[in-house]
Amino acid sequence: MRIGELAAAVGVTTRTVRHYHHQGLLPEPERRPNGYREYTLRHAVVLARIRRLTELGLGLAEVRDVLAEDAGKDLVEVLGELDEDLARQEAAIQERRARLRALLESEGGLPAEGPVSPELAALFRDMGHLSESPMAAKDREMLALIETTAGPEGREQLMNALGDALARPGGKERALAAYGLLDALAEADPTDPRVDEAARALADCLPPDLLPAPVDVDPDNSFLRAFYADFAPAQAEAIRRTLQLLMEGDGP
Asked: Which of 99, 205, 235, 249 is close enough to 231 for a disulfide, judged by CB 3.0 to 4.6 Å?
């Protein structure tokens, strides 16, 4: 058989056959005097087995282990590992689908910053009365960013702390007032006396355990530089002072 006939017989492409040659999976016959390679039935048997193994989901390295006589792994062991891997993938897919269903069925629909966790979506709903505040919109974007980058424990701690802060008597009213002060600084100078007022109002909104460990507030911190650059100068100064107040334990 020529390479095209072998490929057609097994149901693969000639490019696939050459790739298996290159990977050392399928022996490559010597060329005959006429310059063509002549494939035997044995080549077809091996090629068909490679196809069956790859269709089961085995990678080429695993196929090589199965085909090699001294690989140290028999087919049952390799297929058992593959079954375990597929089970993990199946569990992960089921978890993702459950999260998608929770998002699609969430009360009030998806927030503009979505998709986010059901816990953060609920927090955003509690902040619904702040929807007209540009600063509140930026805050929601930042919370979505933190939720994405923080670990599970950090996310849970953040959601609990912010939820408790809003649930405190007058919590929502304090947040509304703080956002209003920050919004009013959009065109102000960083030396405006309202900056300090806004910083103290914002610190009063935040829970005391929001920053449970020392935080790097170094002005040369690259993330903080990018963070502050997203705000007007006076707003950035107010947030900078808020962080300092929280670090000093001068918050609520």
From this structure: 235
